[in-house]
Amino acid sequence: MSAMSILVGEGVVVFAEMSAANELRISQKEMLEVFCFYLPIITIGGMLVIVGYVLGVKGFGNVWDVVVVSVASMLFIEPVIAYSLFRTLPEFGALVGMIMSFAGCFYTLKED
Fold it and tell me: Which tens digit of pLDDT belongs to each residue from 48-100?
């Protein structure tokens, strides 16, 4: 339950952040208008992440395992959302950074 809450919460927050950036890029809307529209969405995502952390720390007994779940969820969700909204692929340096991040998360999970 905690991992799912973190996964969905991180996904909602990242989607709202990138959607707001994309909307400001392609429309004539003011930043305050876009901010006010996406604020409730980000708030809901943040609440899901908080619930996930609380349940995760209670369940795992270790905050670092929960942090790995949070970071790993962003590593999987963020590139998918970025590509779906902006339709661009990462450049070489960003791709190397993502691969190394994946490797670090898997190594951390393997240690437990």
Answer: 999 999 999 999 888 888 888 888 888 889 999 999 988 989 999 999 998 99
CA angle 44, 49, 51 (to 5 degrees): 95
Cα(1)–Cα(7) distance, integer angstroms: 10
Q: Is the pTM of this model over 0.85?
A: no
75 neighbors 101 (Cβ within 8 angstroms): yes
CB atoms within 10 A of CB 97: 11
Instruction: Mention every residue, 6+ apart, whose C-beta is less than 8 A from residue 108.
Output: 64, 68
